[in-house]
Every structure is written in C-alpha cells, then in structure tokens.
Write the structure tokens for this entry.
Amino acid sequence: MDAQLPYSEKVMDHFTNPRNVGEIPDASGIGTVGNPVCGDVMKMYLKIEGDIIVDVKFKTFGCGAALATSSMVTEMVKGKSIEDALKVTNKAVAEALGGLPPVKMHCSVLAEEALRSALKDYYKRQGLPVPFDDKEHKHEGEKCV
Ligand code: FES
C-alpha cells in the first residue's frame, strides 16, 4: 500500500483485516469486474434467499484501496434486500471508510460494479430481466466519467 497517501484508520483496518474474503461454492450470483485504469480485478459471490443477500464473499487481485472497499461493501450489503443493496454506491462505500484519497476513488468503483455484476448474474440465472439500470461507467484516460 502506498504509505505516503493519507489513508484513514478504517481503510487501514479493512486493508490489513479484510472481511468476507473467499468464495461461496453454491453462490446465487457471481460477478467479475476489471478496472481498465489499473488492471485490478474483483470477483464477488452472493448467496440470495428470497430477496435478501444472506451471504457475500469476495476475492480481489488489486491495490489496498480496492481490497478495503471490497471488504466494506460486503459488510454494507450483507443481510440487506437486493433493493437496498443497489442503493450502496461507491461514494457511500468510500464515506463509510472515512474517505479515500482522490486518486484512489476509482478503486471504489470496482466494488460497486462487482456487486451489480453479481446481481445481474443472479437475475440471469433466474431467467428474469435485470430490474436495474446497467450503468457501466466509462473512462477518459485515468478518470472515471
Ligand atoms: S489501483 Fe487498481 S483498483 Fe486501486
């Protein structure tokens, strides 16, 4: 982790002790996303019963901020309904971590997109239409737009 950047204590905590790392063998939905800016990759597994995310696990091949945001997003959506989980934005994840340095905000996008991708997979497996906007963001150089 880049020691000169001003990371919050919460970021450091989730980086050194990430929650919900691993796989769910009988997952209801799996999402894999890559960050085109840096090449980092995140995979998220969801176990959904009824409308509730009863379990969530992730694996991240990425920077410390990606690890911390994935860990935080799993804590924020576990036990939530799908509808409420979809309201968890990358900004909310970054805020819950006490903020991220601006150059690391793009890392939090990976966490939000992995969640949405896993939910999309869940709906596809059910043979149902995806009931939310598939807002994949774009990049201009290093910036997410
Ligand atoms: S530098 Fe790649 S996700 Fe952070």
In short: The mean pLDDT is 90.
